[in-house]
Design brief:
heterodimer; A: alpha/beta; Rossmann fold; seven-stranded parallel β-sheet; five-stranded parallel β-sheet; 8 helices; B: Rossmann fold; 2 domains; nine-stranded mixed β-sheet; two-stranded antiparallel ribbon; 6 helices; globular
């Protein structure tokens, strides 16, 4: 049951979820007693070279001038040919926006449905069973594949730890050039753009301090900003704060905002609606400060203070300054 | 422009869910239902395009008899007619099975554009729209925030991660999955509700549209997630609590 991990590279940089997927692929392969290879599309030679240093059977470097910029038609055609050539039993992807865009099409071309957004797995009698969430995280489900290989799954951000990737390999790099004709690419992607001047990449932040409805007024956000500054953290927010225009949408964490998995996530005055939790529960350490001891945020918090944030946060700023 | 909007009826967002005794699905009795939120935005996108460019919006829905209410609400908001594929147990289909049934129901419709929400609030596969595009041989784009008609096709605004966006040009016919927050949602007017009563809903059965094929993924067991974390709470005065927290973060969690 060989595994193929298809990782995401922009041409300039790896998508950080790529390493989470690679770690998952290595763990599943070890448990199922099989090998794992990895593929990167349009990542260039340096990306393939970097991958080859991981513990892998083989690295597939998929290159074609029609694969940049990304299109779902191009990626589906290329990966279909690669999968036919490699014949893996299981193909794993990070559950990124790009993967969401092409994976269902790719799986359909094999007559399959991918198990998307999986949060965990177990290997049972040689078969891999994935755990997914239903009803926006209220219910879990164990999903198994009914059909023959190849099968497809994508993994939720933060479900696996990127720092558990095993290195120490010297995998052979195989260049793979798919056959693609320009006429097969039906959509024309234009340049990427951001709407605001101050672009924020919350997913790259090591520490995030997020603010929710408990802050009461826009002017009070300055207090939480001071805590973020003391910690060298990025400022995030729950949806109501961004809907109200108190912080730009790009700082929103949650199902309709960004999905983050920093080393530490501090939730200040956030009750923890599931739409928020899905965006941050992969964080390594979660700290919650909330006046309601029954707030669902405490279900995912490692550490918490039940109290008035307007009293706690100033003390926290002082304590952090002393500790650093 | 002829626009088909595929909509789904799902349990209300604030529903208290219980696991069915079979362990295969949730207990459906006593639940209230509503349109899947991203599908409501897909319908809104379709209605705005119709108002701007003319044509009609057709609401397409696979679901049991109760889903008829969701179709009527779409008609009240301005859809011209509905197609209801009645199926008592839509959960028996995986996303490919669902898309096959939807594709079969659209035979003869020849829409210029098919819209649907980017994912459902119940199963959350986020796949049915893209699969439908593949089955119908149409180009697609996902997580769409804007649609403009232009010469030879459409220009859409895709949401990407981390605050990035991208415009994509594509020919018609095409399929788009729409993101929540696309635009403000309209309410049905009294006049709309009245008019909806005389609008056509074509009914068919999933079985009558041909076999959906064997599912390729199977939901083995549905269960409530276990609470795995034990939260360590710090009491005392705000100052004491803050100091204890920082000490833990520095020496135990080692994140400072």
């Amino acid at each position: 049951m060989s595994i193929l991990a298809v990782l995401q590279h922009s041409g300039q940089a790896w998508h950080r979820m790529s390493w989470e997927t690679l770690a998952a692929a290595q763990q599943i392969a070890a448990q199922a007693n099989t090998s794992v290879s990895a593929a990167v599309v349009a990542g260039g030679e340096s990306a393939a070279g970097e991958l080859a240093q991981k513990r892998l059977e083989r690295v597939y470097s998929v290159e074609h001038e029609l694969l940049s910029p990304y299109t779902p038609d191009g990626y589906s055609l290329a990966l279909r040919q690669l999968i036919e050539r490699v014949q893996p039993r299981l193909v794993l992807f990070p559950h990124t926006y790009q993967v969401r865009d092409f994976l269902p099409k790719l799986a359909t071309s094999f007559g399959k449905v991918a198990v998307t957004d999986a949060i965990a797995h177990r290997v049972q009698d040689g078969a891999v069973i994935f755990v997914r969430q239903l009803f926006q995280g209220k219910v879990n489900v164990d999903v198994r594949f009914a059909g023959e290989a190849p099968n497809f799954a994508s993994l939720q951000a933060g479900a696996y730890r990127a720092d558990q990737v095993e290195s120490g390999g010297a995998a052979a790099i195989e260049k793979f050039r798919p056959e693609i004709a320009a006429a097969q690419i039906r959509t024309k992607p234009l340049e990427l753009f951001r709407e605001s001047q101050r672009a924020v990449d919350l997913s790259a932040a090591e520490i995030i301090v997020s603010v929710g409805r408990g802050i009461q007024e826009a002017s009070n956000i300055a207090l939480v900003q001071q805590l973020a500054d003391a910690l060298g953290a990025e400022l995030g927010a729950s949806r109501p704060i961004c809907d109200a225009g108190w912080l730009p949408m790009e700082r929103q964490v949650g199902s309709s905002g960004q999905t983050v998995a920093p080393k530490m996530y501090l939730a200040i005055g956030i009750s923890g609606a599931i739409q928020h939790l899905v965006g941050m529960k992969g964080s390594r350490t979660v700290v919650a400060i909330n006046k309601d001891a029954n707030a669902p945020i405490f279900e995912v918090a490692d550490y918490g203070i039940v109290g008035d944030l307007f009293q706690v946060v100033p003390e926290l700023i002082e304590a952090v300054k002393k500790a650093r | 422009m002829k626009i088909v909007v595929a909509i789904k009826q799902v349990p209300s967002r604030d529903a208290q869910l219980k696991i069915a005794s079979s362990g295969k699905w949730i207990e459906e009795e006593d639940l209230s239902y509503e349109i899947n939120e991203p599908d409501a935005y897909a319908l809104e996108a379709g209605l705005q395009l119709q108002e701007k460019n003319g044509g009609e919006v057709v609401a397409l829905c696979l679901g049991p008899a109760r889903a008829g209410q969701t179709i009527r609400e779409a008609l009240a908001k301005g859809a011209a007619r509905g197609i209801h594929i009645e199926e008592d147990d839509p959960g028996a289909f995986d996303a490919l099975g669902t898309a096959r049934v939807l594709a079969a129901a659209l035979a003869g419709e020849k829409p210029d554009l098919i819209l649907t929400g980017l994912q459902s609030d119940d199963l959350g596969y986020g796949q049915t729209g893209v699969i439908l595009a593949e089955l119908l041989g149409l180009p697609h784009a996902t997580i769409i925030m804007q649609v403009e008609k232009q010469d030879g096709g459409i220009r859409v605004k895709r949401e990407l991660e981390d605050g990035w966006f991208q415009h994509v040009e594509m020919p018609l016919p095409a399929l788009l999955t729409i993101q929540s927050g696309f635009s403000k949602l309209r309410y049905a007017t009294l006049m709309g509700i009245k008019k909806a009563k005389s609008k056509e809903i074509r009914r068919m059965t999933a079985a009558g549209l041909g076999p959906p094929g064997a599912p390729s993924i199977i939901l083995d067991r549905v269960y409530l997630p276990e609470r795995t974390k034990h939260t360590e709470l710090f009491g005392g005065s705000p100052k004491e609590a803050a100091q204890k927290l920082v000490e833990k973060l520095k020496f135990e969690a080692r994140v400072l």
